[in-house]
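Database export, one record per block. Field names are fixed; values are copied verbatim from the stored entry.
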Amino acid sequence: MSFLAMTKAASIYQELKKKIMDGALEPGTHLVIKQIAIEYGISDIPVREALKELSVEGLVETIPHVGSRVATISSRNIEEMLVMRECLEPFAAELAVAYADDLIIKKLEDYYVQMNQALQVQDIETYGKINTEFHSVMIQASGNQLLADTIFGLIKSEKRMRMVFNIFPEILENSNKEHKDMIFYIKEGNAKAMSSLVYEHKKRSFDKMRRYFKI
């Protein structure tokens, strides 16, 4: 294959992978080679190469006589990810109480204000993005990079599922009240209360996802 064709294959691979990981291409979505080639103005060959690479990574499934589709996520896989996050994120939040400085607290307060603003206009997409940033700051503040990397890896995988706030918008208001409490516990240095709150915060949302996915 020519260098140009390989370059195109790499570009399509990156584009499709981003859409899969961001949830723009949901599990089960059919990936028609001809349609993708037309969309990007290229031949079928680099598209086939890109799909082959995504298949090796487990992001795409190729079914004989049917074609390629975004790989589905098993209920067991979802449950394993949720359980790990329920265990690891409260621990990270507990550690963050000891490591969080004024700069981190300021970031969390700013995100809380932005989430309130998004909540007032029911901008669920913006709320979800800022919510992710809020929790990312807390996770990174744990001071344990291996722990943080593990959680971020789980969060990245779960982007392939629909965002919880899109499925259950009714949890938004209570969710943000708890963000305010998290900031309070950091300021008070109450690590145990923080851990307990984050556990309940996550479990409430994840239990709804379990029911939604019938786990």
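Remark 1: The longest helix spans residues 75-99.
Remark 2: The beta strands are 30-31, 60-63, 67-70.
End of record.
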